[in-house]
Design a protein that fits this description.
Elements (H helix, E strand, L loop, with lengths): L1 E6 L14 E3 L8 E3 L2 E7 L5 E4 L12 E5 L16 E2 L2 E5 L3 E7 L4 E5 L6 E6 L4 E7 L3 H12 L12 E3 L7 H13 L6 E4 L20 H10 L3 E7 L2 E2 L5 H8 L13 E4 L2 E4 L6 H10 L1 H4 L5 E5 L7 E2 H14 L6 H12 L5 H5 L2 E4 L2 E4 H4 L3 H17 L5 E4 L2 E2 L7 E3 L7 H16 L5 E2 L1 E2 L8 H11 L5 E3 L17 H27 L4 E2 L1 H4 L4 H5 L4 E3 L3 E3 L9 E6 L3 E7 L2 E7 L2 E6 L5 E6 L5 E2 L15 E2 L1
Parallel strand pairs: 1-2, 7-24, 13-14, 13-28, 14-15, 15-19, 19-23, 23-25, 25-26, 27-28
Antiparallel strand pairs: 1-12, 3-4, 4-11, 5-8, 6-10, 8-9, 9-12, 10-11, 16-18, 17-18, 17-20, 21-22, 29-30, 30-31, 31-36, 32-35, 33-34, 33-36, 37-38
Helix pairs in contact: 5-11, 7-8, 13-14
The chain binds ligand MIG.
The site of ligand MIG has 10 residues, from loops.
């Protein structure tokens, strides 16, 4: 059952699509109250209750014992100490003595104190006066999720080729660099379907432009790659370069499409292109306008995009920078104590993504000025909705690949997400694994992390182990930052182990695609915590390093360095498949704890009794897969 409670007159976030009669917020059964001008509610947790949800966030599948904040943030350090990442996924669920889910449909900041202040209490603070809260009750966590997901609508299904292996880097800056990647993979006989274009393909980082020195005849080039079975996926950033004569900027100015300052002038801040204006994506006409701009690239043969920097990330504002410079100039020549030094240092390091800047940004909704803070968490989602709706209308649903960095529930209907700038750290294999079921609860099915890690230098074994998790994630993309060690699969000498891992992915694609489509159609999760399936089993309930995959399987990737395998808990008898290239080794394991050897070129898959897993022959491209010639294991 689902009930809706309302405070004030909320802006329509487009998250829930089932029409429901709203009750008063004061009838919400979890201690609704106003404290210090903010709305709060709370519920008690028994010792063995698990709190699930919050989608893309730090820490565990069980969210207990930390404070999280829904506030879309461009933060490239995904450490335990953080409260916010790029997304605002306001769905939380209690599983245990009772079972219910809560969705706070509010695009302003929301704080989730999940047993941090009071170990047995979850306290939620909503920093707004107009919003809806939904209460979902059912008999089990799985049913709560299903009920919630049916209310927010079916998840986006990308094109079939988007299940192929994808290679990215910031940046393959010209056609030669892209060709080298394709050649590297082809020579190593490693499957590949997509190569990504990061910001350097543009002219001066301007959206919907192509640098002609880097790609002299882009259209021709895109079609030549397509003939080779390779799709190019360009990035689109939220900020529009301030430059007279640049069509997008001029049109935005002429039509009043950009966010404003309080005095009505255009809000400006620095991002990659330099000073930028920010489309007011909350306006339907702005979404239609910006969405239609993708056509420029689609007409050149492009079939997929990734939307970046749409929290929105702000490196600095003119106001912030000038104030900081004034302080620095003012301090010059004065006797500087340590306090003064750290103050100036903080002023400069705090220039990016400043609260003051977000507070000085204004939207216009139905002719009314709305402060950015009240809708912050919808900005990126609306950017992606702009593209998604244009694609669905003009090219048909699921024809164009789209995924975004920032997101809000609702955006899962038109796009996927990636988990942003992780690190080439072993701990991030596990963090990214834990994000998968949480993201699925919130509707995001097409997702994945930067395999091999984005920041910092990767090692060969890390990339292999990361890829072995990526074999199962719908988005299987290796991506890394400018200046870090190359981490393409052919960059570490002998590529055989990489081929073995990625071939396993291609063998599984028909099966994974089927699970994906069914999960979208039936409002199911692809990845579930073991506790969803084995409710009374203590070890399963506490397991944070293994996941159920669909209805037949369990996965348990290796996430530590210098180990030859890992300990795996089997909540029932299962068959272990050791997959490597076209090799399949199968053995039976009894319920209980096992140490399982996993070589660097192997992918372990645990299959429940009485289930059969279809495999096809691998191919270098998804288009060459013979999806109707399946062998069953
Ligand atoms: O400030 O476009 O998360 O994937 O490679 C960094 C450059 C901007 C952040 C994205 C990352 C991308 C990078 N971008």
């Amino acid at each position: 059952m689902i009930r809706k409670f309302r405070l004030g007159s909320p802006y329509d976030t487009n998250a829930v699509i089932t029409p429901l009669q709203a009750e008063s917020i004061w009838d919400f059964p979890f201690n609704p109250a106003v404290t210090d001008g903010c709305f709060e509610f709370s519920f008690l947790m028994r010792q063995d209750d698990i709190v699930y949800g919050l989608g893309e966030a730090v820490r565990g599948i069980n969210k207990r014992g930390w404070i999280y904040e829904s506030y879309c943030s461009d933060d490239p350090f995904h450490t335990e100490s953080k409260r916010s990442l790029y997304a605002a996924h306001n769905f939380i669920m209690l599983g245990g003595s009772g079972c219910f889910g809560i969705f706070v449909d509010c695009p302003a900041r929301v704080r989730w104190d999940v047993g941090y202040t009071q170990p047995d209490e979850t306290r939620v603070t909503v920093f707004a006066k107009d919003f809806d809260v939904y209460l979902i009750t059912a008999d089990s966590p799985r049913e709560v999720v299903r009920e919630f997901r049916s209310a927010v609508g079916k998840s986006y299904v990308p094109p079939f080729w988007a299940f192929g292996y994808q290679q990215s880097r910031w940046s393959y800056h010209n056609a030669d660099a892209v060709d080298r990647v394709v050649r590297g993979y082809d020579e190593a006989k490693i499957p590949l379907d997509c190569v990504y274009l990061d910001i350097d393909y543009m002219q001066s980082f301007k959206d919907f432009t192509v640098n002609e020195n880097a790609f002299p005849d882009f259209k021709e080039y895109v079609s030549a790659k397509k003939e080779q079975g390779i799709r190019l996926i360009p990035i689109i950033d939220a900020g529009v370069k301030k430059e007279e004569g640049y069509e997008i900027y001029d049109e935005g100015i002429k039509n009043g499409f950009f966010c404003k300052n309080a005095d009505g002038s255009v809000f400006e801040a620095g991002v990659w292109p330099g000073v930028c204006a920010f489309p007011d994506f909350l306006k339907p006409e702005v979404r239609r306008w910006f969405g239609s701009k993708y056509r420029y690239l689609i007409d050149m043969g492009i079939e997929g995009f990734w939307n970046d920097m749409n929290e929105p990330a702000l490196f600095y504002s003119a106001n912030g920078l000038n104030a900081a410079l004034d302080e620095a100039v003012d301090a010059k020549g004065k006797n500087f104590d340590l306090g003064g030094f750290f103050h100036i240092k903080d002023v400069f390091t705090g220039l990016s993504n400043r609260q003051e800047d977000y507070s000085s940004m204004w939207h216009s909704i139905d002719g009314k000025a709305v402060n950015h803070q009240d809708v912050h968490n919808l900005y990126g989602a609306c950017m992606t909705r702009a593209a998604g709706e244009y694609f669905a209308e003009n090219y048909g649903e699921g024809e164009i690949l789209m995924f975004s960095r920032a997101s809000y529930i609702g955006a899962h209907r038109t796009a996927g997400i990636w988990f942003g700038d992780n690190h080439s750290w072993w701990s991030h294999i596990l963090l990214n694994l834990k994000m998968l079921p949480s993201a699925n609860m919130c509707g995001f099915l097409y997702c994945g992390a930067d395999l091999g890690g984005f920041n910092d230098n990767a090692t060969r074994d890390l990339v292999l182990r990361f890829l072995a998790l990526g074999v199962f994630t719908p988005l299987m993309r290796n991506h890394s930052a400018l200046g870090t060690r190359d981490q393409e699969c052919y960059s570490f000498g002998d590529a055989g182990d990489f081929r073995d891992i990625i071939e396993v992915r291609y063998r599984l694609i028909p099966y994974l695609y089927k699970i994906f489509c069914a999960a979208s159609a039936d409002s199911e999760m692809i990845f579930r915590p073991l506790s969803f399936d084995y409710l009374g089993d203590k070890i399963a309930r506490e397991c944070e390093t293994q996941l159920m995959l669909g209805d037949d399987c369990m996965i348990a990737p290796v996430y530590e360095q210098n180990v030859s395998g890992r300990t795996v808990y089997l909540p029932e008898d299962m068959r272990l498949l050791r997959l490597s290239g076209t090799r399949v080794e199968s053995s039976e394991l009894k319920k209980g704890i096992h140490y399982v050897d996993v070589a660097l070129n192997e992918v372990p898959l645990f299959v429940k009794k009485g289930k059969k897993i279809p495999l096809c022959q691998p191919a270098l491209r998804t288009r060459d897969l013979k999806t109707d010639e399946l062998e069953f294991v």
